[in-house]
């Protein structure tokens, strides 16, 4: 695998550092030889990042984007969630919408020819190196409730080509007068790349598919499990019982123990 390619994730606080630890272990377990890069903002401390450093990943500081005061106010957690409330699941208290835009700094990483971004609340269960042959901009659909959602992308996994020119153009569009991105980076990327290429859904299988669309879930195909809404490291979250097998999978990668045994025991959900 060429060193021109990298998997990239973003850590903005201690909670997402936990998530990234499981993600990195899952990527390493997949056998990839691509670089693994963790972008981290000032919300993550040296102590938070130390377990990731021990795994040999490349830690790159990433400042929040230089957006205007008006933009920042419109995208503060309370204001954004009041204007565009989440009605399908719970976003944890450590979720800070403004932090999400920092993932756009991936386009500054011009030392790489191509990057695959994966949110820190996901794990890889099969090698996905073939994504490095895919074009920009590729993302899977935001499907977790019905097939009607196939027209929307989910920015938890995407393929990108770093470019200083693209990054500059993104900043200009992002912070246009009165711009409001309802689902932060996800809404922005869908607008910036209106002709985005659709990845098969199994490259970014959202956890709610497990109980909402069980007929869509097939472990023979699933490559990435994405824990949208409630996180698998949260204690007793509202969907914990429904998602118990997926939480056990995440815990295996997080601890680094019983991974192969857990993967071997995966069975598809029962159709409702």
Mean pLDDT: 93
Numbering strands along the chain, what is their spatial order in the largest sheet?
3-2-1-4-7-6-8
Strand pairing plus helix content: what structural class? alpha/beta
What is the CATH homology-level superfamily? Spore Coat Polysaccharide Biosynthesis Protein SpsA, Chain A
Order of helices and strands: EHEHEHHHEEEEHHEEHEHH
The percent of residues in helical segments reads: 25-40%
**What does the main sheet amount to?**
7 strands, mixed
Question: What is the CATH domain class?
Answer: Alpha Beta
How many domains, in number, for the residues? 1
Overall 3D form: globular
Count of helical stretches: 10
Low-confidence stretches: none
Name of the CATH architecture: Alpha-Beta Complex
Number of strands: 10
CATH topology: Spore Coat Polysaccharide Biosynthesis Protein SpsA, Chain A
The radius of gyration computed from the alpha-carbon positions, rounded to a whole number of angstroms, is 18 Å
Distance between the termini: 42 Å
Strand content: 15-25%
Tell me what you see in this structure.
- The protein has a single domain, classed as Spore Coat Polysaccharide Biosynthesis Protein SpsA, Chain A.
- Helix content is 31%, strand content 16%.
- The chain has helices at 14-29, 46-54, 69-74, 77-83, 97-100, 164-174, 184-192, 209-212, 244-255, 259-264; strands at residues 5-11, 35-40, 58-61, 114-118, 122-124, 138-141, 153-160, 197-198, 205-206, 224-226.
- Helix 1 (14-29) packs parallel to helix 2.
- The longest helix is centred in the N-terminal third of the chain and has 16 residues, at 14-29.
């Amino acid at each position: 695998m060429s060193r021109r390619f990298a998997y990239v994730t973003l850590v903005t606080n201690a909670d997402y550092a936990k998530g990234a630890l499981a993600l990195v272990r899952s990527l390493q377990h997949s056998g990839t030889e691509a670089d693994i890069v963790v972008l981290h903002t000032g919300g993550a401390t040296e102590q938070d990042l130390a377990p990731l450093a021990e795994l040999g990943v490349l830690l790159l500081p990433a400042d929040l984007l230089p957006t205007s005061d008006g933009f920042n106010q419109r995208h503060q957690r309370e204001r954004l969630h009041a204007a565009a409330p989440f009605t399908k699941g719970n976003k944890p208290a450590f979720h800070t919408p403004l932090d999400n835009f920092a993932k756009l700094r991936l386009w500054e990483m011009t030392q790489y020819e191509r990057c695959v971004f994966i949110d820190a609340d996901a794990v890889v269960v099969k090698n996905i190196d073939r994504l490095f042959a895919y074009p920009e901009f590729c993302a899977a659909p935001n499907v977790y409730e019905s097939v009607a959602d196939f027209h929307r992308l989910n920015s938890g996994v995407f393929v990108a080509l770093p470019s200083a020119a693209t990054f500059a153009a993104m900043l200009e569009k992002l912070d246009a007068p009165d711009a409001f991105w309802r689902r932060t980076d996800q809404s922005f990327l869908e607008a910036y790349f209106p002709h985005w290429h659709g990845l098969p859904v199994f490259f970014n299988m959202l956890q709610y598919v497990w109980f909402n669309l069980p007929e869509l879930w097939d472990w023979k195909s699933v490559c990435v499990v994405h824990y949208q809404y409630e996180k698998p490291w949260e204690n007793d979250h509202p969907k914990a019982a429904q998602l118990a097998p997926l939480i056990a999978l995440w815990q295996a990668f997080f601890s680094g123990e019983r991974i192969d045994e857990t993967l071997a025991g995966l069975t598809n959900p029962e159709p409702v």
